[in-house]
Write the structure tokens for this entry.
Amino acid sequence: MSGKFIKVTCKDCGSESVIYSRATTVISCSVCGATLTAPSGGKAKLVGCKMLEAME
Ligand SMILES: [Zn+2]
């Protein structure tokens, strides 16, 4: 099964981003630069953000 995109909100500034759930790179918030996700075991681990919803 392939990954999907999820909408997340930054814990620091609250801005919303859409990220790939299997992102293999660190993703940073485009507004405040906080680390949102870190790759972990083939999945993007949410470290500085909260998931809002899954996108189709
Ligand atoms: Zn932010």
Strands lie at 5-10, 16-20, 27-28, 35-40, 43-46, 49-54. The two ends are 13 Å apart (CA to CA). The chain has no helices and six strands. The chain has one domain: 5-54.
